[in-house]
Amino acid sequence: MSIEPMAWRWIFLSSAWAIAVPFGSAVGIHLHRLRPLFFGEVMGLAITWLLVGIFTGINAHKLRL
Fold first, then answer.
1. How far apart, in whole angstroms, are the C-alpha atoms of residue 10 and residue 1?
2. How many beta carbons lie within 10 A of that of residue 20, not counting itself?
3. What is the pTM of this model?
4. pLDDT tens-digit profile of 45-57?
5. What distance in Å separates the CA atoms of residue 53 and residue 17, rounded to the nearest whole number?
6. Residue 21 CA: distances (Å) to CA of 1, 41, 64
7. Helix, strand, coil share (%) of the chain residues, nearest 5
8. How does pLDDT run across 22-33, given as a tens digit for each residue?
């Protein structure tokens, strides 16, 4: 099987960003409002990257199969 027919799956693999960035931003904004420190923004970014990694890994595993 050639790789081109499966290339459309990359769109679903990239959709992890569409889910993780708004969620992580919302968490970061909420934490920043509770305590106006840089910590809230850092935690929001950490959650964003964690979710991007998890969703990308899950989708990449499905793409490989």
1. 16
2. 20
3. 0.69
4. 888 889 888 888 8
5. 10
6. 34, 12, 24
7. 85, 0, 15
8. 888 888 888 888
CA 25 to chain centre: 11
* Cβ atoms of 63 and 6 closer than 8 Å: yes
Other Cβ atoms closer than 10 A to 63: 13
Q: What is the CA radius of gyration of the chain?
A: 16
Q: What single DSSP character describes residue 35?
A: S
Reported in sequence order, the residue ranges of the chain that DSSP labels E, i.e. its strands, are none
Buried b (16+ CB within 10 A) or exposed e, 23-56: ebeebbeebbeeeeeeebeebbeebbeebbeebb
Tokens of 48: 């964003």
Spatial CA neighbour of 20 closest among 56, 62, 58, 63: 56
